[in-house]
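Let's inspect a concrete specimen:
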Amino acid sequence: MTSKSDIKAEAERLRFALEARGAVAFDADVLQPAGALLDLYGEDIRARAFVTSDPLRGEMMLRPDFTVPLVQSHVAMDAGATRYAYAGEVFRRQEDDASRPAEYFQVGFEVFGRAAAEADAEVFATFADLLSELELRPAVGDIGLLRAAIEGLPIGDARKAFLMHHLWRPKRFRALLGQMTQEPVRPLPKAPVEGAVEVGLRTRSDVVARIEAMTADRSEPLLSKDAVDLIDALLTVRQAAPNALAQLEDIAVDMPSIKSAVDRLSGRFEAIAARGIDVSTLGFEASYGRTSLEYYDGFVFGFYADKRPDLPPVATGGRYDALTRVLGGVQAMPAVGGVIRPGLILELAS
């Protein structure tokens, strides 16, 4: 078993390598206010984080990642175009697999405020270089394609928002699409009688508002099966990058809302190739990252040890422009980054 001191030393080595590439060192408190994390992840984060309470500061969490405090710090300082590097422990509860660590080291590289394609390529190529001796398999995707496809559907904003909310839950997402192609069977509930006794947490006005929203939803035209079939076709794209791009361009003929996202993907592949990476063998998966990379809204990537399928990805990352708006209340700024697990590097190298 690799010692904690060796893992820490490897983490520092990687951080120094990132600083040598122009990154500014960043650190964050181990105890983080729970509010921002709950706003971002929802109540689901409670199942994955260690939660405690401070008499003065309220609910706190052991640091589940560095990205949230980093974005908050960057927005507060209005720092502009900056590269960051960090190394430290994160803490995750493990309720299903006792063999997975509850605390482990992460090394991160984050780039703010730079042109998207070039920054995506820089982060990806940097990780590929740092991990080159391990012979890992890279995989890339683009959450922005699916988001663009949803935005282009002939449905109202409420339905689009609902689909966006469940984008990270593939089965629920697909079920919702199916429901939008069919006339509802169940009748709408009746509004509560004025003056009726209120039971539970929902008030009469809450119930009435919900019924009104359901009524408005049912007035929407049905989604065509062809539109759903195009979404399915998009999500099944899984090819080497050039072939995937050609397939996506064909889909964009019938789904013009994704054309800009496909063009951005093409520019990203060109930027990655310009950094010496052979994109002809780079695996692209349109569905990649949908179940594990929740706050990303564009480019996503991971590096995998195929000889050790029992291990999680050695590195993951992606673009999260909208996160700066969610956490900072400002206009979204370009941001992309990722994390490496130094403990896995040492395990694979041993």
